[in-house]
Amino acid sequence: MNEKILEVINLSKKFGRKFALNGVSFSLFKGEIIGLLGENGSGKTTLLRIIMGILKPSKGKVMFKGEKITEKAKLNIFYVPEKDIYYQNMKVDEMAEFLSNFYRFDFSKWRSLKKFFNLNENLKIKQLSRGYRERLKIALAFSCDVELYLFDEPLSGIDPVSRSKILDMLLSEFVEKGQTILISTHLVEEVESFLDRVIFLKNGEIILESYADDLREKYKGSILDIYKKFFS
Amino acid sequence: MRQYWFFFVKDFKERKWWFFGFIFAILAFNIWSIFFDNVGKKILLNIFLISAIFVYVFIQGINLVRTEWRENTVEFLLSLPVKKYKWLLSKFAFVGFVSFILSSLWYLLFTVYALRDFLNYHQIHLKTSFSFWIFWWLYLVFSCKFSGFLGLFIQTISSIFKRFGKLIGFLSFASLVFIFFYFLRVLDLNIVFHVSFYSKKVINCFITSCSWWVILYIMVFMLIFSFLLFYLFEKFAEL
């Protein structure tokens, strides 16, 4: 739990005159599951995009294992955005094959995940329903052998009944020991039991960062209660 | 290089019908040009057509990148462990490569056929002075020129169709075909014609050897060959 995987140092991002992120600093340690919690427009997606090198920060830097985020570092980071980002004309299996050209891809895990998510490999991605496209994104992500996963609202398209079940199964069956997961979400209730640490982001600034158990003890309530307290 | 290839295959698979359309255009244009050619030297037009391939590759490359933006897939591409310029360049390389390969392929078959006839004819002095080095150089130049022409033509037509709809698109297509062929019928498109060194005798022997059944034969052969090529390409991509 002590090896530092990712370090975000004094990160700021301005769009025009507006600050999307302002002086954000935190670290992620090996094997942790961290919840990046906040309302819409709080800067969660911007933060993930900057970590992934999709956006350039206005100020500050991101280090992965002590080095800047380069293509070499990206081999160990997998980003799952909220949007449909995969090629809609590709079949489910074709997309996996395409990804396997860039990452260390575990095909046996992919087959198990396909089965687990009930994904039809013969369908094109555009033929899948929204919920199944979300499942596909998660299945593809966990088939890639990386050290850090960045999820942006991974459960938003999945029905409420399946969410916790999926998360539970995924984390117990498919996540390897030592893999770090940063989940950005506002569906706090579904994820809170899995989180080791939480970061509350509001108007581009970190307003709270702590271990989940410490927070529960300090505020005598669930993470959802604390979230409500901070954001209402 | 490996990564360029994966992007290339992905783009190619998505645009297979565009590829076959290209083949048809090549065939139609060549067949048409055979019956209207003469040995005019339109140097400026030739230069323009060669530069057109670069314009075409640039415009189509930009279009491919725009498609990635439109379909949100650019976020996925940017998140991959690949240098940004690699996938960007692969788009341009894809357009240039496909258009050039297709047109050269057509030239190759056509010229081999023409040469076979030429070598069977009895102009011995032509055979002895024939330089293959010049021939292949010219082959390369005119393949580029032909790719440029087709690229420009397809680009113009597709833009008109997109902007003005079917009726105006079709009318523009018809008039552009007429204008293009009116100017290009004097622009010798077959490599053998360009070897002006051999003058009209070669051209005569070539033209006399081209009957309808020969053209049909080449056309069918080209189609089968293209499908075969594409099938192999797909299979190779699956490996």
Could you characterize what this model shows?
The complex is a heterodimer of chains A (232) and B (239). Chain A is an alpha/beta fold and 232 residues long. Chain A has helices at residues 44-51, 71-74, 92-100, 107-117, 130-143, 160-174, 188-191, 212-219, 223-231; strands at 4-15, 18-29, 33-37, 59-64, 67-68, 77-80, 148-152, 180-185, 197-202, 205-211. In chain A, a hairpin with a 2-residue loop joins β9 (197-202) and β10 (205-211). In chain A, α4 (107-117) packs antiparallel against α5. The two termini of chain A are 33 Å apart. Chain B has 239 residues and is mainly α. Chain B is globular and about 50 Å long. Residues 38-44, 185-215 and 233-239 of chain B have low confidence and may be disordered. At the A-B interface, α2 of A face α1 and α4 of B.
SSE inventory with pairings:
The complex is a heterodimer of chains A (232) and B (239).
Chain A: E1 4-15, E2 18-29, E3 33-37, H1 44-51, E4 59-64, E5 67-68, H2 71-74, E6 77-80, H3 92-100, H4 107-117, H5 130-143, E7 148-152, H6 160-174, E8 180-185, H7 188-191, E9 197-202, E10 205-211, H8 212-219, H9 223-231
Parallel strand pairs in A: 3-8, 3-9, 6-7, 7-8
Antiparallel strand pairs in A: 1-2, 1-4, 4-5, 9-10
Helix pairs in contact in A: 4-5
Chain B: H1 2-14, H2 16-34, H3 43-70, H4 73-79, H5 84-120, H6 124-128, H7 132-164, H8 166-184, H9 191-194, H10 199-209, H11 212-238
Helix pairs in contact in B: 1-5, 2-5, 2-11, 3-5, 3-7, 5-7, 5-10, 7-8
